[in-house]
Amino acid sequence: xxxxxxxxxxxxxxxxxxxxxxxxxxxxxxxxxxxxxxxxxxxxxxxxxxxxxxxxxxxxxxxxxxxxxxxxxxxxxxxxxxxxxxxxxxxxxxxxxxxxxxxxxxxxxxxxxxxxxxxxxxxxxxxxxxxxxxxxxxxxxxxxxxxxxxxxxxxxxxxxxxxxxxxxxxxxxxxxxxxxxxxxxxxxxxxxxxxxxxxxxxxxxxxxxxxxxxxxxxxxxxxxxxxxxxxxxxxxxxxxxxxxxxxxxxxxxxxxxxxxxxxxxxxxxxxxxxxxxxxxxxxxxxxxxxxxxxxxxxxxxxxxxxxxxxxxxxxxxxxxxxxxxxxxxxxxxxxxxxxxxx
Length: 342
Ligand code: 5GP
Ligand code: MN
Hints:
The mean pLDDT is 97. The chain is globular. It folds into 2 domains: 205 residues, inorganic pyrophosphatase (n-terminal core), CATH 3.90.1640; 124 residues, Diaminopimelate Epimerase, Chain A, domain 1 (Roll). By secondary structure, it is α/β, with parallel strands linked by helices. A 6-stranded parallel beta sheet has the order 3-2-1-4-5-6, with helices on both faces. It has a 6-stranded mixed beta sheet with strand order 7-8-9-10-12-11. It is built from 13 helices and 12 strands. The two termini are 29 Å apart. Manganese (II) ion (MN) binds next to loops.
């Protein structure tokens, strides 16, 4: 595990001592790591005697609403004036779990104009050059694990209590698919053992996240796997695609399709999967891969996206049908890379 540079830590320490108006922001469609790391850092700053503002670009799934501090989160889509004002007034802006201001989908312009000092803490590759203090390392399972390491490096481990530990564990658990991927670094387990030592109930957290779905979501999953999955054994690839109408038929709520993209990866021989979800103006896409196939490069090269090697996403402005056609037509070009390592 790389250590965080002394320069970064000293600058961060100084900023935390002096900030009067800290603001924490994460990416659009926040996931468990985005919310877990942001709320953990929120509680840490409160313990440092600060009054941080925590914002998200848009709403996030119900199964994250139990997180301690959820009631403090200000959602830009519902409180745009308050959020824009807070960004303008902040003297320190902590950008967590994203590597490009464009990932806020609408706040990038305001972040660029904001006078506050910007800090990036993130585990995605190749961060855009937008922050004054950049703590970026892809070796961590999650931004939550990085937050633990940052707090440790700041000499404040004693401030991590049960509440912060619950938030951090949520981020690590969700970004590793419950320790299924991105979880081969021993440091992850050192952190987890410390969090469990603090008295968190890991089984309760798991249940809060994964056993909290609606019956509609379960039926939508069944429908997708039964009727909407296409398999291409020759390309070791499978995908699921859902139309707007189908989402409506199953009373779709944010977060309902979370995890669907992983299911086809458990088919023997499949090492690349995608899910296409038709939205009002675009098609949102998630990609997953096993082994060396770079899902992030694929997303970046063809679908305006990026992410991690094995978990990425993007979008298409083409129609639903044209987007699927484009994907099907791309596969033969990747036959060698997709075959490798099988
Ligand atoms: P998910 O499929 O869970 O929404 O996203 C998986 C990963 O893909 C995220 O952690 C993020 O790194 C990346 N990702 C998802 N959507 C986008 C996107 O539209 N643009 C970029 N650059 N990355 C994305
Ligand atoms: Mn993350």
